[in-house]
């Protein structure tokens, strides 16, 4: 088992990573010194696979778990799901020392975390992420929340988990498209913070695509270390945490203008990161050879490296970028790379350069 520590003073916690850890969840929860009553929040695809083991290990240690399931997919990240969860928690008489376990992908993690952040003005929660994206990204850092009709993640809070338990074996049942989508965030960590990780990914990609446990353990742990380090420096995203948004300015806009389900998150941020690399070459001198390495790695991971947009779609993309909640004062700001492994945030980019980068992604993909 590998352990990554998230250093946040009184809110510090461990991320534990390894194969087969699910069975140890009960014992881990005992160590946290929480109450006996707890709720497992999961979705209808994940619960049939893993909720049995989770319930058993909790009951063996004397806990009284209630299982709450929500539909699988992004639509479950809603205030109506939150409301339904509150009612179940109240009926099960969860109190201040009780806790919630988020068992599932980023959707369940964000939803269950938000429920935990607000029920009784905040109770403890544990993240048990079962997608690659959730293990390397969404379960760490305490951003929790739900969507509104007007947009994604518009209601939320910061509420750190007490523990993150990544059982690598759960990834074996993840559909290949979801798995590859998670790899887009893995590649991002190499670009923003760790040239050695990037080189390792170039070398070990076939093993990673085969979900080989040793490679997976090393890579997931390294990604968690980077996220923990960034979050430890800037919990509430007033500064350096913004570097985690590399490729997301265009990626989010692409998600916003496409109909639901067209792109998984990782599929949108892949051309987003390639476009950001193209802009980086023009603004910060990222060498052309490194732009090529970035494009090639996404392509080898089976992620979209090309983006064809009609004139109308491109106009909509720009509108969506300006509407993004991270834009202040109407100005689109980018995270850009000087080198693989080194980025700078808050970069103002003229529209013309964004167009040139999108042309390059269209023609060279
Ligand atoms: N809080 C953060 O910092 C943060 C960061 C990134 C993304 N997010 C959020 O994460 C969400 C996306 O998360 P996601 O990609 O994990 O999606 P998801 O939670 O919808 O999971 C994807 C699909 O895989 C299924 N699934 C999950 N684990 C499985 C397993 N082990 N085997 C088989 N199927 C499994 C789920 O039921 C679902 O259908 C978005 O809502 C996004 O906004 C949050
Ligand atoms: Zn992302």
Describe the structure.
With 365 residues, the protein is α/β, with parallel strands linked by helices. It contains 13 helices and 11 strands. The strands form 3 sheets. A 7-stranded mixed beta sheet has the order 1-2-9-6-5-3-4, with helices on both faces. A two-stranded antiparallel sheet has the order 7-8. Strands 10-11 form a two-stranded antiparallel ribbon. It is globular. The model has no long low-confidence stretch (mean pLDDT 96). Nicotinamide-adenine-dinucleotide binds at residues 43, 45-46, 72-74, 77, 104-108, 110, 130-131, 133-134, 137-138, 141, 143, 152-153, 170, 173-174, 178, 265.
Mean pLDDT: 96
Q: Low-confidence spans: pLDDT under 50, at least 5 residues?
A: none
Radius of gyration: 20 Å
- Helical residue percent band: 40-55%
Largest sheet report: 7 strands, mixed
Q: N-to-C terminal Cα separation, in Å?
A: 39 Å
SSE topology string: EEHEHEHEHEHEEEHHHHHHHEEH
Strand order of the largest sheet: 1-2-9-6-5-3-4
Q: How many DSSP-defined strands?
A: 11
Q: From the helix content, strand content and strand pairing, which structural class follows?
A: alpha/beta
Tell me which ligands are bound. nicotinamide-adenine-dinucleotide, zinc ion
Gross geometry: globular
Counting DSSP H or I runs of 4 or more residues, the number of helices is 13
Percent in strands: 15-25%
